[in-house]
Amino acid sequence: MISGAAASEYSPAVLGRFKHPSYGGVGMDQANVLHATAGSRSSGASVRLSLKIGNGNVEQARFQAYGCPHFIAAADMLAEWCEGRSIAELSNWSWQSVEQSLDVPPSKRGRLLVLELALNNVISVLRTTQSAAG
Question: pLDDT tens across 49-97, in order?
């Protein structure tokens, strides 16, 4: 929970997504769902990104994350961005756009790179799955 002086460190956009993430959790049917993780709790940021794939597109995206409010808000933005995208478009995500939108301090850029790594990991799992399918 964030209160008092600590809350003033975060923009309304960060606080809104941190307190009420729209894409947090695991509540989706597990058929055609790919998962990837990145980061660690000991480093201050970890995420599990789950994408449900159908007809070459991301039908649903969810995340589970541990980290600061900026990180949780950025994970929510990533999951939102993924939904409706084609598989080919996934590699176009930019942590820089999230950094600007949420006014993430430069000292927390490494945490945004954890999100990029998670997305790259799920893309890798997707490519491996597609190759195995033939």
Answer: 999 999 989 999 999 999 999 999 999 999 999 999 999 999 999 999 9
| pTM reported for the whole predicted model | 0.90
The DSSP letter of residue 9 is G
Q: Which CATH class is domain 10-133?
A: alpha beta
Q: Which of 74, 63, 71 is nearest to 98 (CA)?
A: 74
- Which one-letter amino acid corresponds to residue 129? T
Domain extents for the chain? Answer: 10-133
**Helix count (H) and strand count (E) of the chain?**
4, 3
Q: By 3-state DSSP, what share of the chain in percent is helix, strand and coil, each rounded to 5?
A: 55, 20, 25
Report the distance separating Cα 69 and Cα 62, nearest Å. Answer: 17
The first and second tokens of residue 54, run together, are: 């159908």
Distance (Å, rounded) from C-alpha 103 to C-alpha 118? Answer: 21
For 47, phi and psi rounded to 5 degrees? Answer: -145, 145
Which residue type is seen at 110? G
